[in-house]
Specification:
Helix content is 20%, strand content 27%. It has helices spanning 13-24, 29-35, 86-93, 161-166, 172-183, 233-238, and strands at 40-47, 57-58, 72-73, 76-77, 79-85, 104-109, 123-126, 145-154, 191-194, 207-214, 224-232, 245-250.
C-alpha cells in the first residue's frame, strides 16, 4: 500500500488548513493526524468548470495511429470513455506524476465488461499527434465533454481495508472516525485521476485505481453507472497501460 508520509507538497494551503482543523476537531486528534499519512495526490476532472486541460475530455472519437487496431471485446469494438492529455496534465503534479509526460491515454469501455478477459486491452497510450479515427459501423460514440483539471488530495473511504490496515492498532470504529473526520472536508469528485477508490473498493494487493468515471448525461453507458480502471503498481511504473483493467458498477 503506497502512502505519502512527507510534507504533502501536493496539498495546497487551503486544503492543508481544512485538514489540520478537521484533525484537531476529530474525536481522536492524534489518530486523525496519523491518518493524514494515507493522503495520495489525485486530479479532479470536471466538465463545464473552466477551460479544458489540453485535449483531455470525455467521449468523442479516439486518436489512433494508423497501425493501431481499434480495441475490441468479444469481437465488438469498444467505445471511447475518456482521453487524457498527458503533456497538459503532468505539470499539475510535477514530481508526483506517475504517468507518461506526453501523448494521450485512451480509456475504452463496453457495457458487457463484467466478462472482460484480462488479455483484452481497454487502455492505450498513443502519440499526441495521432489523428481521430472514424468509429467502426455500429459502434456507439458518446458526445464530447472537455474536462478541466485541478489537483485534489485523496483519502480512502473510512470503511476500506486500507484504513483498518494503516491504523491497525486502533479499534475499527476509532480508525473509521479518524479518517471520516478528514474525508468530510475534502471535495466530492465525479471524475478522478489517480488517488484512492471513491467507492471503497480496495482492489488486489499492489493495484490502484488509474481513472474513475461516473456516468454522463447523453452518454450510452448501458447499465453502467461508474467505471474504475485499475492497474498494478509495477505495470504503472513500467508504463504497461495495456494491462490496466476495468471495474464497473451497474444500476
Amino acid at each position: 500500500m503506497t502512502t505519502h508520509s512527507d510534507d504533502f507538497a501536493f496539498v495546497d494551503e487551503e486544503a492543508r488548513a481544512r485538514l489540520a482543523e478537521a484533525a484537531a476537531n476529530a474525536p481522536d486528534p492524534e489518530a486523525a493526524r496519523r491518518a493524514l499519512g494515507l493522503l495520495r495526490p489525485s486530479i479532479e476532472l470536471a466538465s463545464g468548470e473552466g477551460p479544458a486541460c489540453g485535449r483531455t475530455r470525455l467521449g468523442g472519437l479516439p486518436p489512433l495511429p494508423p497501425r493501431t487496431g481499434w480495441p475490441a471485446f468479444g469481437g465488438r469494438p469498444l467505445t471511447l470513455a475518456a482521453q487524457l492529455d498527458c503533456a497538459a496534465l503532468s505539470p499539475l503534479l510535477g514530481d508526483e506524476w506517475p504517468l507518461p509526460r506526453d501523448g494521450l491515454l485512451l480509456f475504452f469501455y463496453d457495457d458487457a465488461f463484467g466478462e472482460l478477459n484480462p488479455k483484452d486491452v481497454c487502455v492505450l497510450h498513443v502519440p499526441g499527434d495521432a489523428a481521430e479515427r472514424p468509429a467502426p459501423p455500429g459502434t456507439p460514440v458518446n458526445p464530447e465533454f472537455p474536462l478541466a483539471a485541478a489537483v485534489t488530495p485523496s483519502l480512502p473511504v473510512s470503511f476500506s481495508h486500507a484504513v483498518s490496515t494503516y491504523l491497525e492498532d486502533l479499534d475499527l470504529i476509532d480508525a473509521m472516525d479518524a479518517v471520516r473526520a478528514l474525508t468530510d472536508v475534502l471535495p466530492q469528485v465525479d471524475y478522478r485521476l489517480l488517488g484512492w477508490h471513491d467507492g471503497g473498493a480496495d482492489g488486489l494487493a499492489g493495484h490502484r485505481p488509474l481513472l474513475q468515471l461516473e456516468t454522463v448525461d447523453g452518454a450510452d453507458w448501458g447499465e453502467i453507472v461508474n467505471i474504475a480502471y485499475w492497474i498494478d503498481d509495477d505495470d504503472l511504473a513500467a508504463g504497461r497501460f495495456d494491462r490496466a483493467y476495468p471495474g464497473i458498477e451497474v444500476a
